[in-house]
Amino acid sequence: IQSNLRMLPWLNCGENVLLEINNVKYKKESGMLFITIKRVIWTHINNSAIPTVQYEYSQIKAQRISPDSASKIRLQLVLHDDTAVTFHFDNPVVELQKAEREKVKEILVQLLNKNKKNNAKEEPSKKQISRELEMKQKILQSSEEMFVMYKTLVSGGIISAEDFWAIPRAETMLLAEQNQLQPVGISSAFLSEARPEVDGCNAIQYNLTPDIIQSIFHTYPMIKRRYQELVPSKITEKGFWTSFFQSQYFHKNKSSNNCQKNDVFLELAQEDEETSLQKLLMDDRDPLLDISDPNNFLNHEGYGMMQHSNDEPGVKPLVRKYNHHGFMICQNFKKTDLNCSKTVDIVKKEQLKAMTSQNDLVNFDKLNHLPLHLSRSQQDERESITYMKSRDATIQALQKTKSELKSFSMHKLYECISPNKAYETLMNIADHSRTNSSNSIPKPGSSTMEEIRLCYLNSSQILCHFWMCFPVTNALLEEKVTRMAESILKCKNVALQDTINRLPSKDGKCLKHLNDQLDLALLTYEQWLAKKGKR
Questions:
Q1: In what order do the strands lie in the sheet with 84-89?
Q2: HEC string for 383-440
Q3: Of 192, 150, 190, which Cα lies nearest the Cα of 169?
């Protein structure tokens, strides 16, 4: 698409006119039609400075053209709210009317397709961003401590929001919040969301978004396996999905006899159905009830074993595909143990025992207890003899200690220190403790302690960020350690200093250790810069 650099009063910055057509009527009024990079604009012939009709490509759903047999050459834009805007090409030269419309149609096809692709790429990222913002907002609302930290560090300009959510405390809370999220299920109508649209060239286009592709891969693992085998080594991605929408997976009445020989999904649908049937038979199977054998129920009156008429041959395949589609969606989130070690006979015996026995009627006196088998009799005997010897030695030591305590006399303590000397020593210790208690610093109040704790908490998170950068081995870590050093300097000069100024002078001494930690981090950063400069 070539742009036409023309200056018009209603053009925005960076918007160029791609196509300009004169003699185009809208509601029987003559005017000019402009096709720009961002929108479609129609202006009145007497007032081209103000757009009368303008629509961005995100508002346009499709375009339609009048048939060749029509008397007037028209182009209609269908919007997403199902309203339509019709333009009549009324060039005095009749032969040019259709040519001008074809130019507009071709350029609109390219621009509309480009807009749809951009929207399909941006949609998953927008969902992810909105989900992350919801989790962060929930954390800030539920935790007052995190809210105060965010207000102090981010709103105070000490660190950025991205660095705040990367600190260990916030990262842990985000991870816990993600684990609590309920996994998003798959819509049973995800294939119908790829609505086909007919463009101006009478071609069918499917709106295949990344979400629909992931739903197809989750529901049909065979499709994902075939995609990995063929794309892009043997077939392009566009050709793969074109074949998919022409296969049995998407067409209800298409059988394997009608498939082409080069169809990559020729045997895949049948193999997928057989695999899902095997899983279905293995899940929650009752070995005492074999419903796969019709002879068990043929003689039961009113069971419903009636022969269905073949008047509608397309109903049975349609119902089978419908059931298979629903089973695959349910199977996507169901965890089954396909490698079950129990055989059918063991399961039968367990079920029969559970059905025929009653725990309340069991005679516990006659229960067979497990016998004790000693595989290492000689070694066990040696260990028991050693244990008996150590046990006897312990008993003798206890008896000796008891006899010594009974014969103990308090007069033996006087031989160590006299009573007057002991009393004098205790009085000196009591006087010293009273002196220290009178000169001790009183404990700060609860509000002051909370403010000091938050100051330590905020600074420790930045320090943790800083020390995690060492050793600095790449350019990203160099950028991060510089950013964290600047944050530490702001924290020291702004947040810490404000806290010290608010607190009384006697309570401000409690933050001396934190100030030393910040100074140590800044000193380490200066030493790292010096070593880097020498290199």
A1: 47-56, 39-44, 29-36, 17-26, 84-89, 74-79, 60-65
A2: HHHHHHHHHHHHHHHHHHHHHHHHCCCHHHHHHCCCHHHHHHHHHHHHHHHHHHHHHC
A3: 150
> Does residue 337 register a pLDDT over 50?
no
Phi, psi of 336 (to 5 degrees): -120, 150
Q: Check: CB of residue 197 under 8 Å from CB of residue 204.
A: yes
Helix or strand run (H / E) with residue 480: helix 475-490
**Which are the contacts of 17, defined by CB distance < 8 A and separation ≥ 6?**
3, 4, 5, 6, 8, 11, 34, 35, 36
E-only strand ranges, 37-156 = 39-44, 47-56, 60-65, 74-79, 84-89
DSSP 8-state code for residue 183: P
Nearest to 49 by CA among 60, 57, 41: 41
Residue-level pLDDT at 77: 92
DSSP-derived secondary structure letter, 494: I
223: CB partners within 8 A, 6+ apart: 216, 217, 244, 249, 268
State which of 225-229, 350-354, 439-443, 471-475 shows the largest mean pLDDT: 471-475
- Residue among 276, 274, 284, 292 at smallest CA distance from 337: 284
Q: Whole-model pTM? A: 0.41
Closest CA to 76 of 90, 60, 91: 60
Rounded to whole angstroms, how far apart are CA atoms 318 and 314?
6
Helix (H) or strand (E) holding 17: strand 17-26
Identify the three-state secondary structure at position 22: strand
Instruction: Sort strands 84-89 and 17-26 into parallel, antiparallel or unpaired.
Output: antiparallel
Average pLDDT, integer, range 21-35 = 91
User: What would the pLDDT profile of 385-402 be if each residue is shown by its tens digit?
Assistant: 666 666 777 888 888 888
Axis-axis angle for helices 446-467, 475-490 (nearest 10): 160
- d(Cα 208, Cα 115) in Å, to the nearest integer? 14
d(CA 98, CA 90): 10
What is the rounded CA–CA span in Å between residue 487 and residue 431? 49
Q: Helices 144-153 & 94-142, crossing angle to 10 degrees?
A: 120
Q: Which of 253, 243, 186 is CA-nearest to residue 220?
A: 186
pLDDT at 135: 87
Tokens of 354: 């559970």
Residues 6+ apart with CB under 8 A from 330: none
Tokens of 205: 């286009």
Is 420 or 274 the better-scoring residue by pLDDT? Answer: 420
Among 170-184, 405-419, 499-513, the range with the most confident prediction by mean pLDDT is 499-513
- Whether 187 has a pLDDT exceeding 50, the answer reads yes
